[in-house]
């Protein structure tokens, strides 16, 4: 490295031009008087004494009082440490700038694309701590193990969580070791590889292609309509077609999909059962959250007039409404994106089912 370049490096490490010049002069010639330092460098005679004193205070040189002031370079331990610390700081700063460039502000986007897959996982991790209603997620077993502590904390807050795991080695055993089989969630195993997908509270969607994709990228979505599309992809392609892991098989009393609720409850209702539910919802008129409890007093969906007692999810994807008798009001309950109903159901808890004795 040329002297000029080396001096520039020292200046970037917080040395002044005079300090860098004087220090390099002493490294080259060894002990020199202050006058000789000034003569062999660009440091002026009036400035050389204060420059050498400042280098001594920084631990770079020793000064000796003889007939005149002399200086000699100290073993360069201090400057080595100084340069390496500065190098680490600048490298870390560069890495942070790259990461911030790739990660848009949390509330500043509707759809963003990032290059780093770790960014997507970290965003999901952060968003899970703020999720209040429902989580739908499809991922590999390695990704599941990474997010397991966050999912457990989310479930403990009362959030409804459903997870599809792409088939891998010893999925059930690894889910058990991650402490997920004892949680109030249903795990299903998908038999073909697929993308990472997380739909959180209907507004936030995170997507990454599977490992076979030619390039790595992630998509961050903050939009209800696009999240609805991803919800239906999860529902029809990554969830309904597969069975639960045996050790987690259970009849779930909670739904975050009105269509699933109607599919399961319609036969009971048509057989005369009294179905009591609690619904966390959005009031269509006020746009505020509300919780209502009541009994099902009516259903409306394709095929109803033709005597279909258990409509399919495909049929229900067109339109469906549940009517709820709260004892004070009769409310029309709509699905995701409801416009004409009174409330939009976010989470439905099946409280009781009673069959009339005949």
Automatic annotation (TrEMBL):
<protein>
    <submittedName>
        <fullName>TrmB family transcriptional regulator</fullName>
    </submittedName>
</protein>
<dbReference type="InterPro" id="IPR036390">
    <property type="entry name" value="WH_DNA-bd_sf"/>
</dbReference>
<dbReference type="InterPro" id="IPR036388">
    <property type="entry name" value="WH-like_DNA-bd_sf"/>
</dbReference>
<dbReference type="InterPro" id="IPR002831">
    <property type="entry name" value="Tscrpt_reg_TrmB_N"/>
</dbReference>
<dbReference type="Pfam" id="PF11495">
    <property type="entry name" value="Regulator_TrmB"/>
</dbReference>
<feature type="domain" description="Transcription regulator TrmB N-terminal">
    <location>
        <begin position="10"/>
        <end position="67"/>
    </location>
</feature>
<dbReference type="InterPro" id="IPR051797">
    <property type="entry name" value="TrmB-like"/>
</dbReference>
<dbReference type="InterPro" id="IPR021586">
    <property type="entry name" value="Tscrpt_reg_TrmB_C"/>
</dbReference>
<comment type="similarity">
    <text>Belongs to the transcriptional regulator TrmB family.</text>
</comment>
<dbReference type="Pfam" id="PF01978">
    <property type="entry name" value="TrmB"/>
</dbReference>
<feature type="domain" description="Transcription regulator TrmB C-terminal">
    <location>
        <begin position="111"/>
        <end position="351"/>
    </location>
</feature>
């Amino acid at each position: 490295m040329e002297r000029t370049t080396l001096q520039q490096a020292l200046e970037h490490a917080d040395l002044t031009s005079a300090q860098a010049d004087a220090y390099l002069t002493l490294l080259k010639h060894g002990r020199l008087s202050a006058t000789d330092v000034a003569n062999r460098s660009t440091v002026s005679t009036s400035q050389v004494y204060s420059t050498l004193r400042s280098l001594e205070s920084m631990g770079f040189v020793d000064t000796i009082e003889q007939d005149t002031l002399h200086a000699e370079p100290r073993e360069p331990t201090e400057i080595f440490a100084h340069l390496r610390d500065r190098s680490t700081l600048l490298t870390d700063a560069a890495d942070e700038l790259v990461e911030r460039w790739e990660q848009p502000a949390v509330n500043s986007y509707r759809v963003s694309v990032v290059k780093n897959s770790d960014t997507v996982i970290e965003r999901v991790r952060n968003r899970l701590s703020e999720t209040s209603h429902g989580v739908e997620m499809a991922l590999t077993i390695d990704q599941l193990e990474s997010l397991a502590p966050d999912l457990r904390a989310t479930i403990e807050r009362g959030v409804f969580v459903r997870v599809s795991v792409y088939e891998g080695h010893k999925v059930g055993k690894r889910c058990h070791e991650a402490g997920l089989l004892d949680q109030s969630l249903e795990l299903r195993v998908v038999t073909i590889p697929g993308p990472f997908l997380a739909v959180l509270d209907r507004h936030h969607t995170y997507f990454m292609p599977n490992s076979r994709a030619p390039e790595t990228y992630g998509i961050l979505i903050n939009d209800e309509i696009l999240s609805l599309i991803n919800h239906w992809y999860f529902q029809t392609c990554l969830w309904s077609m597969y069975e639960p892991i045996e050790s987690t098989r259970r009849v779930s009393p909670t739904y975050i999909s009105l269509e699933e609720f109607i599919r399961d409850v319609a036969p009971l209702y048509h057989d005369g059962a009294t179905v009591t539910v609690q619904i966390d919802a959005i009031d269509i008129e006020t746009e505020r959250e509300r919780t209502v409890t009541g009994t099902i007093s009516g259903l409306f969906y394709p095929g109803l007039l033709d005597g279909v007692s258990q409509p399919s999810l495909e049929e229900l994807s067109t339109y469906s409404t549940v009517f709820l008798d709260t004892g004070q009001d009769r409310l029309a309950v709509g699905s995701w994106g409801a416009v004409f109903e009174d409330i939009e159901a976010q989470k439905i808890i099946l409280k009781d089912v009673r069959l009339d004795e005949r």
